[in-house]
Amino acid sequence: MEVHRLEREFHYNGVKLPDTSPAMIPEQVRDTYVHLYPEIATAAIEGPETVTGRLVYKFVRAIGAKG
Fold first, then answer.
1. How would you class 16 by CB atoms within 10 Å of its CB: exposed for 0-12, middle for 13-18, buried for 19 or more?
2. Which of 4, 17, 33, 37 has the fewest Cβ atoms within 10 Å of its own Cβ atom?
3. pTM to 2 decimals?
């Protein structure tokens, strides 16, 4: 039996973000992108969904008004 690790892919607001480190959990990957996308800090993580042999995670911002 062979074991193959599926590559991860992250998406935010229509942008594909590279996996910074396969050893990190998705929350840690999200935290590495906060300096580029500050609004991602509170985004929910959806997935993974298997798409063409990859695990796809989506960072989804909550929609709502402040206050």
1. exposed
2. 4
3. 0.83
Secondary structure in 3-state letters for the chain: CCCCCCEEEEEECCEEECCCCCCCCHHHHHHHCCCCCHHHHHCEEEEEEEECCEEEEEEECCCCCCC
Residues 49 and 55: beta-carbon distance below 8 Å: yes
- Residue 17 neighbours by CB under 8 Å, 6+ apart: 9, 10, 11, 29, 33, 59
pLDDT tens digits, 8-59: 999 999 999 999 999 999 999 999 999 999 999 999 999 999 999 899 999 9
